Pyridoxamine 5'-phosphate oxidase family protein
Amino acid sequence: MSTNWAAFAAAEPELATTVEQRFGAFTHHVLATLRKDGSPRTTGLEVRFLHGELWLGMMPNSLKALDLRRDPRFALQANPGPGTTMGGGDVRISGRAIEVEDPRTKRAYTEEVEPPEPFHLFRTELTEVVRTCVEDDTYLVVQVWKPGEPVRTLKRT
């Protein structure tokens, strides 16, 4: 089961806001895709939250775009930033990336973002959102959301 960003944000607005803020704190993040042989590939990437979707834009024929065309599964890790503070916690999104070929949709995207032309554009379908943080300098808190389920919160000392 998967869902888009708007459905996640409607279901869990507080966690969605925190995740968007973490991704908004820095420009570049880490995308994990699967190579032909099934091994992981990690690469840098900029992401955008626009029109109720989480978008991944890529240069033409980049290896990560070719990976996603072959196998749409991905994991996206927010840039933790300098040092060890990770204000807002550590966040990760997993799901499937669906390439957008529709010229109207791509044009609407370029009205908000100025990607180099040509480019690959992927819309995401979320299968999991995870936030890990430290609370009160005592607890490790892990929040896990999956489509159709409420956020599950785990605390460890």
Strands lie at 29-34, 40-45, 47-50, 53-58, 73-77, 90-99, 120-135, 139-145, 152-156.
